[in-house]
Amino acid sequence: GKYDLTNKYWKVICFEQKILYDLFSDKNSNEKFFEILDSVFKDKQINFNLIINIFLKKMRIALHARNLQKGMYRQTVECFMIYLLFEELTLFKIKNTRIRNQEIKFGGIIMMNNNYTEAFNNFFQNYSNIFSTIERRYLFTLGFLISRVASKQRKKLGSSPIINKLKGLKLRKEDLLKLKNSVEGKAIEYKISRAILTSIYEYYILVNNEFNKWDVTDDEINFFLSLGINLDRCIWEELTNLGEKLPEEVKELEEQ
User: Fold this and answer.
1) Where are the alpha helices (DSSP H) in the chain?
2) How far apart are CA 256 and CA 251, in angstroms?
3) Which tops the pLDDT comparison, 176 or 8?
4) How far apart are the first and last CA of the chain?
5) Do 48 and 92 touch, CB atoms closer than 8 A?
6) Where does residue 27 rank: exposed (0-12), middle (13-18), buried (19+ CB within 10 A)?
7) Which of 82, 114, 182, 251 is the most buried (most CB within 10 A)?
């Protein structure tokens, strides 16, 4: 991939059969793993909603990981890698094909000349088949803002209570407005860069703010929020390339 998603404790992300096995097997059965493997090698279509649901089950476990269990960051990256693989192989059924062919129209809105906006746009263009709707892009940017608030809270409080607002990755569409308002309120309280809030607002004004009318599943909402939270280092990498001075606490990413 384009970005370095490794850290000091996890130097090599091995793309191999074991990642597929870990994702699609459990202690009771390996049946789903062999079904997926069969689809990969025989170019069979895979149900998109089923895959996202499986990703979320694994990510919910990782959200509460303890000791040597696989943490949220690593689990998210592995899910994202498998998503990229399936997308590259065009294995997803009709729904994702329709999404992939959908154009994102900015409706005459002028996006501000802002390094954060440019960083987000660069990232989305690198994975345009995945971030192919404005809803997915907005969810990612909101997730990024959650990661900023969480980082500030860790530094000040020693914990990240904002993560509790994710309801264990079981959010529903009707929860989004309350989540948005809560996260933005905390961002202002912690004096997070106005440029970040402006960039995210640019995506927000392009979506239907009646969230319950979105053509996305609840699992998709939780998945793309999680990508924004856990792939934040991709945005920091883009910002570094743009010459942006990064916040001091971003150095903590190396310790994750």
Assistant:
1) 17-24, 31-42, 48-63, 72-88, 94-100, 115-126, 134-157, 176-189, 194-204, 218-230, 232-241
2) 10
3) 176
4) 20
5) yes
6) exposed
7) 82
- The rounded distance, in Å, linking the Cα atoms of 125 and 101 is 14
pLDDT at 6: 56
Residue 218: alpha-carbon gap to chain centroid: 14
Whole-prediction pTM = 0.85
- H or E segment and range at residue 185: helix 176-189
Stretch (H or E) spanning 82: helix 72-88
Nearest alpha-carbon partner for 221 in 138, 148, 165: 138
DSSP class of residue 7? B
Return the sign of the alpha-carbon dihedral for residues 12, 18, 24, 27: negative
- The three-state secondary structure class of 229 is helix
* Cα 55 from Cα 178, distance rounded (Å): 25
The two three-digit tokens of residue 2, written as one number: 């384009």
